Amino acid sequence: MADTRNRQRRHNRGQRQTSSRLPFTKMHGLGNDFVVIDLISHPASLSSEQIRELGNRHRGIGFDQLLMIDAPNRPDADFLYRIFNADGSEVEHCGNGARCFAKYVLDRGLIANSPIHVETANRLLTLHRNTDGQVQVDMGEPEFTPASLPLDAQQQDSYQTTVNADGSDHLIEFYAVSMGNPHAVLVVSDCENAPVKSLGARIGKLPLFPQGVNVGFMEIQDRNHIRLRVFERGAGETEACGTGACAAVVAGIKAGLLNNTVTATLNGGQLQINWQGEGHPVLMTGPAATVFEGHITLPKRAGTGE
Ligand SMILES: N[C@H](CCC[C@H](N)C(=O)O)C(=O)O
Questions:
Q1: Which residues lie within the region annotated Disordered (predicted)?
Q2: Which of 59, 70, 100, 136 is the most exposed place for a label (fewest CB within 10 A)?
């Protein structure tokens, strides 16, 4: 049944007519904010320039990421999930966005109930909305090979490099983790006062990371609690980063610093992260919120009389 529906959806995608008024929903996960558009119900295509303009917090709607809901390519998925940073770059994963994705499709009846199987650029996520409204995401397994980020280095348990920021050289040590998207995790003694914006921006531009990287600054409070701030690739420091929280906890567990279930406190609130070790997926649980609905007015297409 689902596959018949998805075959029809994929067929419709081939017939894509660009709508001139495109409905959107503004959502957030712990203050990491999103514009969500449903391309199954409202076929449209957006250029990276249009995405950048929509992401502008003064001239557009404003968001950290734009999330697109579309018909899946895989027969074992209910939906396709595409993610674009505010700078217009398309990326592989967004954890806070996945929780909002689940809320969106369930609230609108695009699917009757959990579990929801969601195809991304490089993995299959499973989303469950709990009775308390929180959403649990099976984020897939972390990867540590340099090629999985990518990271231009030989594989090690941790990496060291020198970064120039704020006019001086900083020798940094970081863990490299892929959650489908790349993360460099630094352990710091004082998260509140860490140079997240200056150092995060510089690390993100290092040639070590040919496709950029999300930079996490993790303070270990005890074996079950961390404080985390993330300078995100393509968005800057955000209120929260779901994949960043997963990457940080995985790095801490792998380094023997954390237990298997950790509460991560980000600027915008808390996420529960669980990882049972290599060969297991990372489970992330947290909230999702809808803020408002609106319409994007797209430029009329030449020759269509729209
Ligand atoms: N900036 C990330 C994508 C969004 C991740 C974040 N918002 C999350 O909740 O995981 C990247 O370029 O890989």
A1: 1-23
A2: 59
